[in-house]
Amino acid sequence: MDIDIVRLDRAAVLESVRVVESAGRGDWDRPTPCSRWNLRRLVEHMGAQHLGFAAAARGEGGDAAVWQTPSFDGDDPAARYRETADLVLAAFAQPGVLDARFTLPEIDAATTFAAPTAIGFHFIDYVVHSWDAAATLGMRTGFPPAVVEAALPIALRVPGGQRRERPDAAFAPALAPEDGAGTDTFRIVLTTLGRSPDWSPSQGS
Fold first, then answer.
1. CA–CA separation, 114 vs 42, rounded Å?
2. So what's the pLDDT on residue 87?
3. DSSP summary character for residue 90
4. CA distance 67 to 70
5. Phi-psi label, residue 143: left if phi above 0, alpha if psi -120 to 50, beta otherwise
6. pLDDT, tens digit, for every residue of 31-76?
7. Which of 44, 132, 177, 188 is deepest in the core (most CB within 10 A)?
8. CA distance 14 to 189
9. Considering only CA atoms, which of 189, 178, 121 is closest in space to residue 149?
10. What are the Cα distances from residue 18, in Å, to 15, 32, 146, 161?
11. How far apart are CA 33 and CA 45, in angstroms?
12. Residues 6+ apart with CB under 8 A from 36
């Protein structure tokens, strides 16, 4: 992967933190584009993935316990989320991390993944989940152009088929290309990964 995936991933994660920290006390029960989760549960899932990937960067990804979803019940889920984000950013910033191999049982328990590929999985997740949280709150994401440009080829490589039709699939089946969206890279990323770019909370209520 000929891109600085650690730097790009950091930008995506920090944008997710910015969006999540914008949530007010009354926002955590809002519906999200991920139909089975309200905002609190979405953010818990995001935190769980940070913890799992941080462990994988340390060579501990094969332990099922590190992938368990934490509880962010209480008045300040955003602070708890920020803690998990800080942990994964620190793990990915360690010297030599790009030479490691990650165990990611939620993707394929039978193999390991080269670090740039694994961090690419994490990166695309947080590009999309930043948008999920922003759409829930009626916000826009503010990714640098390099993040959006790097996200598209990764999104296009996500396998399709029946796997994406399962209730626990990371991404829903791709949506049909939009008329006139050919030059809007971010909208293509979203539809490729099963999101409707014009989703609003009223659709999830």
1. 27
2. 98
3. H
4. 9
5. beta
6. 999 988 999 999 999 999 999 999 999 999 999 999 999 999 888 9
7. 132
8. 19
9. 189
10. 5, 17, 18, 33
11. 14
12. 167
